[in-house]
Design a protein that fits this description.
This protein is an alpha+beta fold. It has a domain of 51 residues. A hairpin with a 2-residue loop joins strand 1 and strand 2. It is elongated. The protein starts with a strand and ends in a 6-residue tail after the last strand.
């Protein structure tokens, strides 16, 4: 079994969430960025490219994210 952890550190706030796959963790990260873009970057237009948008957002001071895969095996019942 594989899970994906998303850790976001932004300013004085830390978030940790668990997702079933990388795609859903990435979608959660994009949601975080999109929800805060205009409040933090004002009239700066967000890039259409998802990778460029995430890179630009996390270039801000005190901003960091990590998506990591956790592989676990459960004991047989």
């Amino acid at each position: 079994m594989s899970l994906h952890l998303l850790m976001i550190t932004f300013g004085d706030k830390d978030e940790l969430s668990v997702h079933p796959d990388h795609g859903s963790a990435w979608a959660a990260l994009l949601g975080f960025v999109d929800d805060r873009w205009s409040a933090l970057l004002g009239s700066t237009e967000a890039p259409d490219d998802e990778n460029a948008r995430v890179d630009a957002f996390f270039a801000l001071p005190d901003a960091f994210y990590l998506i990591g895969e956790v592989v676990a095996s459960l004991p047989a019942a």
